[in-house]
Amino acid sequence: MSGPNGDPDIPIDDAIINDEDEFEDEEYEAINSMLDQINSYLDDLEDRNDSLNGKLHELLESNRQARLEFRAQLLGSQSQEEHCPADGDSSSTSKEYLNKDIENE
């Protein structure tokens, strides 16, 4: 009798792979435990990432608000300087800074 691929010397029964449980129940339990632990670590990492992302957005918004307030203060002080010019004229430097800052946004 020939084998599964037509080989004359191999009996059909020898070519069949017997898939009895190569792994014991303890090995499956150990693998499941490791996968559960990895899943737990990934969930924790995702939570930390979400928390950091939220804090970053808060920081960016706070920074944006601070820049807007600073710009408003500079514009307010410049308008006062235009009405009452001081001895040293630093308004041109401030105006250039504000114009560059506005262009960058």
How would you characterize this protein structure?
The protein has 3 helices and no strands. With 105 residues, the chain is mainly alpha-helical. Helix 2 runs antiparallel to helix 3. The relative contact order is 0.05. The model has no long low-confidence stretch (mean pLDDT 77).
Q: Which key features would you list for this structure?
A:
single chain, 105 residues, mainly alpha, 3 helices, rod-shaped, BBLN_eukaryota, Bublin coiled-coil protein, coiled coil
Helix content: over 70%
Order of helices and strands: HHH
DSSP strand tally: 0
Low-confidence stretches: none
Query: Between the first and last Cα atoms, what is the distance in angstroms?
Result: 82 Å
Spatial shape: rod-shaped
Mean pLDDT: 77
Number of helices: 3
Strand residue percentage: under 5%
Query: Helix/strand-derived class?
Result: mainly alpha
Rg over C-alpha atoms, rounded to the nearest angstrom? 37 Å
Main sheet record:
none
What order do the helices and strands come in, and which of them pair?
Elements: H1 12-15, H2 25-83, H3 91-104
InterPro entries: BBLN_eukaryota
Protein name: Bublin coiled-coil protein
Pfam families: UPF0184 (PF03670)
Task: Give a short overview.
The chain is mainly α and 105 residues long. The chain has helices spanning 12-15, 25-83, 91-104.
